[in-house]
Fold:
Amino acid sequence: MSRPRKCRKVCAMPKSSLFGPLDIPCGGQKIVLAIDEYETLRLIDLAGYTQEECAEQMGVARTTVQGVYNEARRKVADALVHGKNLLIFGGEYDLCEGAERPCGKKCNKMCCKKDEQKEKI
Structure:
């Protein structure tokens, strides 16, 4: 029996959840970037966290963050290179309270709600 998946803490939902090319029709091709993958990109590439700090912030192991981060970068690259839509949606995560603004470095907001998005893509 496999170990249950640990939810990743996310401080804020993205302001926009769909991105895509404006100059070419993409024929409905869509790449789904999970909310936790978005959060690793936000923390590491935008906020300047190290993988260790990101892991602490999200409440998972550094090796988990490394895998999530690599997959997120691969998906974004695929969307950019091949002109596909990028949809940020789903995944298993806990959303921090007060998600109107992103948490700062070393966020201590530990009261989280489970997001139960079941919408079909």
